[in-house]
Amino acid sequence: MGIIQSNNKTVANFEGLHLYHAGISNCSMRVRMTLEEKNLSWESHHIDITQKENLTEDYFSINPKGLVPTLVEDGVVIVESDDIIDHLDQKYPKPSLRPSSPEGLETMYYWLRLAPEIHVKAVKTYIYFKRMRGKMAQSDEEREKYKKLQKDPELLEFHRKSSSDDFSQEDVETAEEILRTCFSEANQVLSKTPYLAGDQFTLADIAWSPLYFTLKEMTDFAFDDFEHLSRWASSLEQRACYQKGIMDWWPMRK
Q1: What span, in angstroms and rounded, lies between the C-alpha atoms of 73 and 79?
Q2: How far apart are CA 254 and CA 251, in angstroms?
Q3: pTM for this one?
Q4: Fold classification of 2-91 (topology level)
Q5: What span, in angstroms and rounded, lies between the C-alpha atoms of 55 and 49?
């Protein structure tokens, strides 16, 4: 989706980089990692999604799907984490987070686009089934309010199931199959190269490391079969952008 027109007059007057984000959100982690990797100054607008702070008319006037993250740059609103980090890397090119070769760039964009493609049907479904069941109940009033605000069919169906605890065993098995297929492919790639798009740390690694982290921290997803993926994930933990973008905001940090 990228850049959108917002009718929120408050954000239209923002100067500099402002980020609406959640500590627990893997999509927000990507943007924070990118901002930190590039040493950019940004103003935080933290949203507690566990308290449904994103499900308000005010926030929907900023992000039409009611999702985090949302980046506002000098009054311009940018949504969807893959589009945000791609924008940041092109707008602020040092240090570069993309390969220089056409082949490497194509690989990077493959992984960058795949992450949001599986987000609702695999990542969110698996995490909510394993960790959040029974915790996202909505009153009839809240349910009707959300239906009026949300226009995206996939998100409407997801929230219907999460609010009524209506995920089936088939839903979670499908989600797990998608995740295992993607992680198996990543593991094979990482058996040959240190990073997902080759020898350089890129947006592809920023897109996928939060998925590994949140699934490992919040669920019983079995990563034991993915030796090279686990090695890659451990190596990324040493980066400053990982510590500042993920760990400093993680609400369950011990």
Answers
A1: 11
A2: 9
A3: 0.96
A4: Glutaredoxin (3.40.30)
A5: 8
- Residue range(s) of every CATH 3.40.30.10 domain in the chain: 2-91
Cβ–Cβ under 8 Å, residues 56 and 81:
no
* Fold assignment, 102-239: Glutathione S-transferase Yfyf (Class Pi); Chain A, domain 2 (1.20.1050)
Q: How many other C-beta atoms lie within 10 A of the C-beta of residue 125?
A: 23
- Sign of the torsion angle spanned by Cα atoms 110, 28, 229, 38: positive
pLDDT tens for each residue of 183-240: 999 999 999 999 999 999 999 999 999 999 999 999 999 999 999 999 999 999 999 9
